[in-house]
UniProtKB/TrEMBL annotation:
Arginine methyltransferase involved in the assembly or stability of mitochondrial NADH:ubiquinone oxidoreductase complex (complex I). Acts by mediating symmetric dimethylation of 'Arg-118' of NDUFS2 after it assembles into the complex I, stabilizing the early intermediate complex. Its EC number is 2.1.1.320. It catalyses: L-arginyl-[protein] + 2 S-adenosyl-L-methionine = N(omega),N(omega)'-dimethyl-L-arginyl-[protein] + 2 S-adenosyl-L-homocysteine + 2 H(+). This is Protein arginine methyltransferase NDUFAF7. It is an enzyme of class 2 (transferase). It is found in: Mitochondrion. It comes from Poecile atricapillus. Belongs to the NDUFAF7 family. PANTHER family: PROTEIN ARGININE METHYLTRANSFERASE NDUFAF7, MITOCHONDRIAL (PTHR12049:SF7). One of its GO terms (cellular component) is mitochondrion.
Length: 458
């Protein structure tokens, strides 16, 4: 695979990344003391942090859930997870959403700005391969602190001459009022207009680089149009249903109040089949325990329909598997594993993404690529060349050590390199000429999709 010339120039350039070259700690977001996470835990754990402490954990959500469970019986894990993460008053993401070093978990864009810059190059490369449409929307689902979009917008700014005739806008899908505030400060400097008239957005502003930015609670509210979608560590935060094979057939795992201990939650099995067991378990399923995330399925279906109709592409990056894993539901608080049923609302709850399910839910409306491992994707995007250039241009030992350390975090198979994956939705015509079957010799070959093919730097 050969990256477009303009993208290769960016990789080799020393001036387009002033942050990385000049920041006092080299790769600016990296804590020198981040230890390795167990690969199975997937979210990256480090030393002390404090979102959960800051959030208080006063037990209000637990009391609310306990009342509900006593009144109307056990709830599905999906319903529990939804309450714990996005309850309007007490949910984990609603109140705080502790992404970053001082929070409960750390993500790739928070570790190194090179990560976001390579993703920015991916979008430019696809935009060029698709014939440089005159307008596109960058739509990020679950933008966290806004760091990834910030890094991508810096790439767009560096390529202003290439994008000069293209009308670019940014659309962020975020349920957390707290995180949308943080994103607004990060991306616009804090000058935003809440509830703009005549818009489906709940907030709008202008990026520091002059690009309009809109915020929505739901992907359905984002206006139609040619769009590049991005979901980094988003699908793992959506509610899952859990199922257990028993001698009597499939049963759904539910959350109930423990009758022996006041205000303590426990897992129980549904006494009979539930609507979800009927709808979500495939007859050919061989595993004994299965997790399904219908909300992720519905969102992928929507993205595939939008890409088929209006054009664009979607890049999904997350930890996950291809329909093979069983029990992956976990909690994280203060960068440590946390009992998922303890103190709901004070910890991040997450489950591995089932990419085979996402592929199925695209329903053939788009082509899919991946999942491929993060270390392969980033290697194909030119991270090694980028590292070399940054190392050559960094004057002091501390900066060089930080750059090497952040590279290791992203790429080491024991850290984030193997458990995180990249997956893409693309229009069929991006991979195969529509009339190729009829006249195979008449068309020039389509450029390969960056990141999913080996990089040849000529
Ligand atoms: N992409 C970021 C943050 C990941 S954390 C990063 O990689 O650093 C998950 C993000 O998804 C948070 O911004 C959270 O508030 C948001 N989120 C969680 N559930 C959501 C939902 N149902 N709809 C929209 N956003 C959601």
């Amino acid at each position: 695979m050969v990256l477009p010339l303009v993208c290769r120039a960016l990789l080799a350039g020393r001036r387009w990344l002033p942050g990385a070259a000049a920041a006092p700690h080299g790769d600016r977001r990296l804590s020198p003391a981040l230890p390795t996470a167990p690969a199975a835990a997937a979210r990256l754990c480090s030393g002390a942090g404090g979102a959960a402490e800051a959030a208080g954990g006063d037990g209000a959500l637990l009391r609310h859930l306990a009342r509900k469970l006593r009144a109307s019986g056990p709830v599905t894990v999906a319903e529990y997870m939804r309450e714990a993460l996005t309850n309007p008053g007490q949910g984990y993401y609603t109140r705080r959403g502790g992404v970053g070093e001082s929070g409960d978990f750390i993500t790739s864009p928070e570790i190194s700005q090179v990560f976001g810059e390579l993703i920015g190059i991916w979008y430019i490369s696809e935009w060029m391969a698709m014939g440089k449409p005159s307008t596109f929307q960058l739509v990020e689902l679950g933008p966290g602190r806004g760091t990834l979009t910030e890094d991508i917008l810096r790439v767009f700014k560096q390529l202003a001459s290439v994008l000069s005739k293209c009308d670019v806008s940014v659309h962020l899908v975020e349920v957390s009022p707290k995180l949308s505030e943080i994103q607004a400060v990060m991306l616009t400097g804090g000058t935003v207009q809440p509830n703009p008239e005549d818009e489906s957005a709940y907030m709008k502003g202008i990026s520091k680089t002059g690009i309009p930015i809109f915020w929505y609670r739901d992907i359905q509210d984002v206006p139609p149009g040619y769009s590049f979608y991005l979901a980094h560590e988003f699908f793992d935060a959506l509610p899952i249903h859990k199922f257990q094979r028993t001698e009597k057939g499939w049963r759904e795992v539910l959350v109930d109040i423990d009758p022996e201990v006041p205000d303590q939650l426990r897992f129980v099995l549904s006494p009979s089949r539930t609507p979800a067991t009927q709808n979500f378990i495939q007859p050919e399923e061989t595993r004994d325990h299965v997790e399904v995330c219908p909300e992720a399925g519905a969102i992928v279906q929507r993205l595939a329909c939008r890409i088929e109709k209006d054009g664009g592409a979607a890049l999904v990056a997350d930890y996950g598997h291809d329909g093979t894993k069983t029990d992956t539901f976990r909690g994280f608080r203060n960068h440590k594993l946390h009992d998922v049923l303890s103190a709901p609302g004070t910890a991040d709850l997450t489950a591995d993404v089932d990419f085979s399910y996402l592929r199925k839910m695209a329903q053939g409306k788009t082509a899919t690529l991946g999942p491929i491992k993060q270390r392969e994707f980033l290697k194909n995007m030119g991270i090694d060349l980028r590292l070399q250039v940054l190392l050559q241009n960094s004057g002091d030992t501390a900066t060089r050590e930080q750059l090497l350390h952040s590279y290791d975090m992203l790429m080491n198979p024991e850290k984030m390199g193997d458990c995180f994956n990249f997956f893409a939705l693309l229009p069929h015509h991006r991979l195969v000429h529509p009339d190729k079957k009829d006249k195979p010799e008449s068309k020039s070959p389509l450029p390969p999709v960056a990141g999913f093919n080996e990089l040849l730097l000529k």
